[in-house]
Amino acid sequence: xxxxxxxxxxxxxxxxxxxxxxxxxxxxxxxxxxxxxxxxxxxxxxxxxxxxxxxxxxxxxxxxxxxxxxxxxxxxxxxxxxxxxxxxxxxxxxxxxxxxxxxxxxxxxxxxxxxxxxxxxxxxxxxxxxxxxxxxxxxxxxxxxxxxxxxxxxxxxxxxxxxxxxxxxxxxxxxxxxxxxxxxxxxxxxx
Length: 191
Description:
5-stranded antiparallel β-sheet; 4-stranded antiparallel β-sheet; 1 helix; 7% helix; globular
């Protein structure tokens, strides 16, 4: 008898493709062993983004990086240390500072070294760069975002979409039901 399981905070992976051969096992998954379980207390995994040497994993209440083919150990002071290649496909989650998350991956945009998304539970628009997570909605729009996100959470039929304007270098959020559009310029830190 098979039982259905709800793995809301699990990443599954396939067997590898072996370069310069005809061996391709990307269609082979072994649910008993080919997965890594992450903290369910942070909610479901909403979005995963490939960052070359790691994955950006955004759950409902936490943003973390997960290294691929490398493991992470912690020293006595709680600091993370990255080890070289190990017999591990996915590392433990290395969380970013702050309690942020995401509920809808349609608000996520990646441009250059910056990542943008909306966190309605905290009423915040966010940016992730090399210096960490920045709450960009605090640049003159905190109250407005708080109101829009509250309305978004209260109604199940409201949608928000994001895009990036490469001509003006702006992150764009469109609140469909309210028919409102806001744009953020990272260069000038204003909406």
